Amino acid sequence: MNILLIQKAGTDLHHTLFSSETSRLVLRFYHPKKKSCGVYISCSTLSSALSLVAELRWYIRRYVREPLFEWERGIFFTHELAQDVYYERTAVLSPGWKYRKLYGFKDGKLVSTVPMSPGSTLDDYHQEYAGVTHAIEIWCNEDEVEEGELIGEAESPGNPDHED
User: Fold this and answer.
1) Using CA of residue 147, residue 153, residue 159, residue 164, what is the dihedral sign?
2) What whole-number distance in Å separates Cα of residue 102 and Cα of residue 149?
3) Is 30 in contact with 36 (CB distance < 8 Å)?
């Protein structure tokens, strides 16, 4: 089980986490890796990944756009779905999960989200991702799948209209 913490725009999450003694102590056994879009952390189980996210919740609220959990290579699921799987046991993950979306990245920044149709694959969305350098599939709950959006300047931290 791995965690991908997608950093908010204008944040160097790896530097932020290691400049704080508190988060350094929490992460001392995990050896997080810096990625262009945030930080990647290897954990042994879903329970340990959820526990680590809970321990880092202050940093996540402040500096992270979204914590994601890697189900298998290239397929991630949301924090809400992870909690449903582990705590509520209302979801059982299996290949061909119905509620999915794509995150498109360019230069390490999240630039678009697109809901995926049931039965579709990442390759089916190639044309919609012109200019996107990397895309990942996100599994989520039904209520987390929303209309696709382009993420732009409205989310930059210097914009007074931006809400956290």
Assistant:
1) positive
2) 11
3) no
The β-bridge partners of 45 are none
Query: Would you place residue 156 in the very low, low, confident or very high pLDDT band (cuts 50, 70, 90)?
Result: very low
Give me the helices (H) in the chain, please: 13-19, 21-27, 46-55, 57-63, 79-83
49-59 mean pLDDT: 97
> What are the pLDDT digits (tens) for 91-128?
888 888 889 998 988 888 998 888 888 888 777 776 56
Number of CB atoms found within 10 A of residue 92's CB: 8
Quote the tokens at residue 114: 């697109």
Whole-structure pTM value? 0.84
- Please tell me the distance from the alpha carbon of residue 2 to that of residue 53, in angstroms, as a whole number: 11
Confirm if 120 and 159 have CB atoms less than 8 A apart: no
Largest CA distance in the chain: 45
Name 142's Cβ contacts closer than 8 Å, sequence gap at least 6.
Answer: 98, 99
CA nearest to 67, candidates 41, 102, 100: 41
Does 154 have pLDDT greater than 60? no
The whole-angstrom separation of Cα 94 and Cα 91 is 9
